[in-house]
């Protein structure tokens, strides 16, 4: 099993770096970013410091990479947070100097396209946290979700093993960020479907994975993937983005992992609740339920062609719906099938 560093926990009053490794959307919707930073100060007691490209749309890959390295290299920063995701982060990985991160390891928070930076750090033996976007989770309309706050506090301040929470209700329908007053409106909540379990074997391992669409790019390049040896004893985590991809995409990713032999190496597979509504794909409640159901069937059907035993747990509260559990990548998790509970180590 791959070895990971143990990173120090933060304390209220600590400084954290804020970057936009993929898209400078804080420049288009500054009121959302500002609200997220205000919550970071007021709820968590942290002092955010933004870097030059954080609010800059279409910043060059080189400039964004420079800001990432500067945020990690600054000893005053005790953690680094991504504002939001995007779609081109894999292109800037080649501009990162691994030694900067080896010399200055610290917790990184982000999700979606930030899968690439998470994977980069994972390969260096630096754990990170999948979740906690400034604009998305910190800048949530009206208030942050309690479950999100609790999960972030575990990641930031607490050490130990905690059971995975399950939300009673969830949100996947946004409100237009271009209308500033929308931040004062509650988002629509719907009843949670609950957790779906498949398999009978308990498991434990180190978390690795991220957003399906980003992992497709990782598989296509094969330049930045972990080694076969490092994947031994890991638990795969997957979730799909606001693109609401067709089911063959997650199927092809899983087929690729299976043909690579990794579905025999993973100890379990954890899948986040798929987002099933976006402004350009406004599905009805029944269409959303059908989409989630078909993705679950696709995941189980594809994995079982390669591995008949590992536990597959789906509809977990991480990824592109809210509330959000922040997953500790590079750290241990236990999947207890007979008690239907998952423990995460922060």
Automatic annotation (TrEMBL):
Assigned protein family: Belongs to the peptidase S66 family.
Keywords: Carboxypeptidase, Hydrolase, Protease
Positions of transmembrane segments: none
Protein name: Putative Peptidase U61 LD-carboxypeptidase A
LD-carboxypeptidase C-terminal domain: residues covered: 204-335
Single GO MF annotation: carboxypeptidase activity
All residue ranges annotated as the LD-carboxypeptidase N-terminal domain in the record: 16-131
SUPFAM superfamilies: Class I glutamine amidotransferase-like, LD-carboxypeptidase A C-terminal domain-like
């Amino acid at each position: 099993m791959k070895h990971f560093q143990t990173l120090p926990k933060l304390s209220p009053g600590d400084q954290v770096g804020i970057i936009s490794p993929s898209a400078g959307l804080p420049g288009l919707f500054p009121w959302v970013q500002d609200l997220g930073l205000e919550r970071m100060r007021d709820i968590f007691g942290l002092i955010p410091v933004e870097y030059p490209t954080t609010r800059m749309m279409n910043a060059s890959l080189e400039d964004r990479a420079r800001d990432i390295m500067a945020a990690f290299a600054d000893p005053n920063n005790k953690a680094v947070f991504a504002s939001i995701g995007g779609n081109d982060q894999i292109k800037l990985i080649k501009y990162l100097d691994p030694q900067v991160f080896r010399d200055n390891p610290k917790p990184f928070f982000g999700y979606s396209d930030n899968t690439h930076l998470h994977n980069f750090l994972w390969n260096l033996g630096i754990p990170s946290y999948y979740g906690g976007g400034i604009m998305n989770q910190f800048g949530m309309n009206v208030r942050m979700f309690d479950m999100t706050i609790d999960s972030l506090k575990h990641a930031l301040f607490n050490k130990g093993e905690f059971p995975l929470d399950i939300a009673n209700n969830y949100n996947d329908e946004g409100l237009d960020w271009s209308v500033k007053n929308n931040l004062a409106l509650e988002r629509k909540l719907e009843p949670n479907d609950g957790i779906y379990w498949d398999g009978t074997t308990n498991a434990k391992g180190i978390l690795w994975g991220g957003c399906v669409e980003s992992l497709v790019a990782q598989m296509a390049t094969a330049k930045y993937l972990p080694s076969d040896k490092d994947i031994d004893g890991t638990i795969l985590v997957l979730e799909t983005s606001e693109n609401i991809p067709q089911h063959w995409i997650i199927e092809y990713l899983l087929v690729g992992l299976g043909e690579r032999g990794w579905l025999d190496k993973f100890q379990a597979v954890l899948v986040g609740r798929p987002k099933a509504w976006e402004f350009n794909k406004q599905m009805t409640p029944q269409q959303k339920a059908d989409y989630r159901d078909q993705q679950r069937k696709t995941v189980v059907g594809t994995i079982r062609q390669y591995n008949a035993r590992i536990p597959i747990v789906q509809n977990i509260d991480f990824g592109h719906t809210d509330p959000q559990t922040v997953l500790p990548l590079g750290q241990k998790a236990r999947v207890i099938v007979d008690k239907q509970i998952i423990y995460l180590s922060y």
